[in-house]
């Protein structure tokens, strides 16, 4: 029997509702497989601005640094939109403090969901992608300057930064369909040339068994919607990854279905659904918990090394979604908490 310390950061809007679903799944996994999960709930985002005047309070940081893994709901909302302090700063702060440099977003289009997709069924059916986005470099963290008439954003990447995120992508590909598409803008941008050279060298030295292709970000945007089934792992820098992952997230038909993992050099990770705080549906028990539960399955897999448990959770999620017992965003009538409970029941039934 193993024991794990999980920090839960519910955050704002629907964050607490979906985080509760994640905790319920972990408790069920604990009961069924005989592990003990200790949960510590901490504040982040808008709610932390209200209580602590800080979107990422110090005691939250201490708890996250000591935890085996962190589960996050969502941050932000109209209440804080015009404030000086932004809830999203809490998110950047926790990523930075934990040294998380790779954001993984798996996305697959289930046959039963194909009709929800804005794209034609024959285009999206069977699409099964993993986007690996670099999280610590590029335009988001470069020097910025501003005068009345001119603004600049510096874009910086080092070989070491490219290498460590490319490694995550190649390692993931080996466990999937063994193909990596590296996305850049090497025909124009210098950091992209460094990116491409580094990926090519690393591939040659250590990963020549993996199929590697390169794509320019503009044509990649087109190909993601015209032939998404031809990709396996996609790796790219911070800004391109931000844009492409939102683009890809519409393929399955609801943002509520997708989870993410942010990983660093240690086993520790931050797990969260890719959607935001959805203030329009907060407090109504309408939020789809599936994206968060998919994130919890990744936590079991990547941070806690509980592969069998992760498989059981993934299978329970798929079974309940396929059965049509789903929330409104994907055409059902069930409440978020009922779906969460059904998935826990399914784990007990099948394990
Ligand atoms: P943010 O700036 O935090 O990313 P956003 O407005 O861009 O927020 P979301 O908060 O993700 O995006 O909401 C986008 C839309 O998707 C909203 O209409 C919201 O209700 C819906 N939505 C988001 N998450 C879920 C969910 N888990 N279940 C159902 N609907 C959701
Ligand atoms: Mg958004």
What are the defining features of this structure?
Isopropylmalate Dehydrogenase, alpha/beta, 351 residues, 12 helices, binds adenosine-5'-triphosphate, two-stranded antiparallel ribbon, binds magnesium ion, Rossmann fold, ten-stranded mixed β-sheet
What low-confidence regions span 5 or more consecutive residues with pLDDT below 50? none
Main pleated sheet: 10 strands, mixed
CATH architecture of the largest domain: 3-Layer(aba) Sandwich
Strand order, sheet with most strands = 2-1-3-12-11-4-5-10-8-9
Radius of gyration over all CA atoms, rounded = 20 Å
Secondary-structure class: alpha/beta
- Between the first and last Cα atoms, what is the distance in angstroms? 16 Å
Number of strand elements: 12
Give the names of the bound compounds: adenosine-5'-triphosphate, magnesium ion
SSE string:
EHEHHEHEHEEEHEHEHEHEEHHH
Percentage beta strand: 15-25%
| Large-scale geometry | globular
Give the domain tally.
2
Q: CATH superfamily name of the largest domain?
A: Isopropylmalate Dehydrogenase
Number of helical segments with 4 or more residues: 12
Enzyme class: oxidoreductase
Domain Isopropylmalate dehydrogenase-like: 5-343
GO molecular function, one term: 3-isopropylmalate dehydrogenase activity
Subcellular location: Cytoplasm
Give the SSE map.
Elements: E1 3-11, H1 15-33, E2 36-41, H2 46-52, H3 58-66, E3 69-74, H4 88-97, E4 102-108, H5 121-124, E5 128-134, E6 144-146, E7 151-153, H6 159-174, E8 179-184, H7 190-206, E9 211-216, H8 217-226, E10 233-236, H9 238-249, E11 259-263, E12 269-273, H10 290-303, H11 307-323, H12 336-350
Parallel strand pairs: 1-2, 1-3, 3-12, 5-10, 8-9, 8-10
Antiparallel strand pairs: 4-5, 4-11, 6-7, 11-12
Helix pairs in contact: 1-10, 1-12, 6-7, 8-9, 10-11, 11-12
The structure holds adenosine-5'-triphosphate and magnesium ion.
